[in-house]
Amino acid sequence: MPGIPADIDVDATDDFSGSYTDLSDVPADLADGDDTEDADADPTNELQVLSLDGDTLYLSDGGFAVLPGLSRLELLLDIYEQENDVQARLDLGETPLQIFQSGMPLDSLYGKNFEGGLIFYLNTADGSGLVAAMSDQGSAEWGCLSVDLANVPNSPSGTGPGAEIGDGESNTVNILSDCSARPIAASMADALGAGWYLPSIKELGLMHDNLFMHGAGGFSTADSYSSSTEVGANEFWEKNFQFDLEIQQFKGNSNLVRAAKQF
Length: 263
Description:
Elements: H1 28-31, E1 50-53, E2 56-59, E3 64-66, H2 70-83, H3 86-91, H4 96-101, E4 113-114, E5 117-122, E6 129-132, E7 138-141, H5 168-178, H6 185-190, H7 201-210, E8 225-230, E9 235-240, E10 245-250, E11 254-257, E12 260-262
Antiparallel strand pairs: 1-2, 2-3, 4-5, 5-6, 6-12, 7-11, 8-9, 9-10
């Protein structure tokens, strides 16, 4: 080729056959073919297991190196994990609203233990919310068949007064006032303690969506759950968790009870 000095070899096909013996000035411990500078033919006996303790990186053969700042990194990682551990933050006294406002997703709160129950609803405007009891309270009839309870709203459509989020507590108080039969679903929920009540049909719907569908709460699919929402003299609304159905049920039917409480 014009312009290329005669002493430069431009033929790239005759330089290296793939054998170390073709290379000049190769140390003997590499020329043995194992790519390891160890003066032997075993390429595995220099492998080491690394472990970390504070600022010190240890080798399995006993060697170590101090790397300042590693313990600080571990601390920062611990803080990051704690900030993203919703249950730990609740246990340390943060409120669900504070955790939500710090940037955690709303659904990261669902199913977490709080005030004796499992969070299944948070009003992100005022911080109020609802928890479900940890387990079922048993089974019972709704009670007072053929009686339209005077102080309990009728909800033939499953919406409106008596059916909405926040209605379960007042429904329960009025059921227990207007119906003297015991035990009934409302009395079993109330027996769990101060503040516990039989949820409205829409509150049961939130338990289904935010707990059951995420594998939390241990809800049964063998039977439906009673709500405190009355249809009329003979029927009430029940929630079937297995098929996600709201059904008008006969008041004489025995259903499962899962209490709720406001916070």
